[in-house]
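Side project, low priority. Logging it here so it doesn't get lost.
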Amino acid sequence: MSEKAPRIKFGNWLPTGPTYVGPLSYFGWGILVVGILVAVMSSILGNLPFGLLIVSAAMIFLLFFNVRFGELDAGRSLASRIGERMNHAGRNMAGETAYATGLFSELPSENLTALPGALVQIEELDGLDGTGHPYTLLHHRAVRLISATMTSVPDGTELLPQEMKNTQVSRFGAWVASLSRDSAVAGATVTIDSAYSSKAPLVRKLHSEISPAAPIVAQRALLEATQLLPNRHTETHTYGTVVWSVPKLGESVEEAAAEVAAKLPYHRQGLYAAGAGLPMTADSHELARMMRVAYQPMRSSEHGSDELAGHDFTMRLVDAGPDYFDESQRRVVFHDGVASMTAMMTIPPRMHITEDTFKELFAPADKFLRKRVTVFYRPLSSAEAQRVAQKLRKSAGVQATSKGQQSSFDEHKKKLAQKTESELVEGASMTTFSLMVTVTFEANEKAYRAATTQLKSLLEATNLSYRFVERGTSAAFHSTLPLGVLPWMYKSTFATLMGE
């Protein structure tokens, strides 16, 4: 008998933030050294008070803008925290944290059910693929990006041999790596949307398919069998979204759309080879239905009943806004009678992972009305990857030698940085990634506590570090939707300069 194939393990994780030596970055140490030199020169020239004032100002500036408080490799500056609170308070006072649609809203008559925030800038581009299947590309006008969302029903892995699982994992890694070879790709996301659903729509569908000409005994047997089904069944939808830069694809949006349409078969084939079933590019109606269910999970069974009755879902994505959306509170957003919150990964697991590490996080959970996990991929070109690798190697070395006694984590970082650089020389690609989880629950205190406890449990079981999104919760909620919203493309210039 052949031996069981070992699992493929991943874990070459390295932080990509600015290099810190002690409490300060290189930029911070530069300011401090300049401040001290100015103080020394002022003392020599007999103006010591001015020198002390400069040093004090430099230290206060660094304390607010450069020193990071919080977890290693994931802390945030005081300026970032205070700025976030002030921005939220200002938006609250201006009434920007509440959004409503419908006849009694302040929206223009032609956009009474428009999407909120930056999503209102989305333009739909319809087309037909080679098989005659309709699809819709999304043009994000605010950031000049164009995205395509592929829906799929992945193959189950419970009964697959380990060799097949390893093959699928390798092929998915190959698809992620291929993103770096297309200079126009700005990023990609994979979203797993899951929930427990009532068996009622399924039972009605099965009953409707019973032929009147079938024997009475057979009809009765099927009716009895449907009553033995579990009261709930899992409902899981998987989406893969690829986002391209319009200027890198063509001179016009139309040229860019044509280029994307030509690239779609390759990405569908790549996901198919990775065990994603038979991916199809979503059209506007599929995306609109997904949005409406995200705002109110109970709509899923309603849509199922409508399909059973022969009523097609005709709403388009740009008209699929929420009835209302309120992000005035910390952490929790309220929309269409339910509530949601989002947690984001700050540091990946400090260990090797396998295909089962995130299994529980991706699976439906009973304390949530709906759960949406989105993994973001940001591919780097070969030149960018080399620069990042060199920076990581220098950063790991500086951080390790700046301590009096090196820890095992410091040694591990140095080895990983050297390994990464060696692999890039051999032709490997580099892709940065992150992860966000949005959960929806009933809008009451009991459901909130239960959802918080279960979400913490699921995240801690994966050994990753995380934090809840306390403000900017609407942006976080909509970033986890499979619409091609890449958070780094909306990052402010100030946040980029400060390394946030």
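Brief comment: The chain has 16 helices and 17 strands.
Revisit when time allows.
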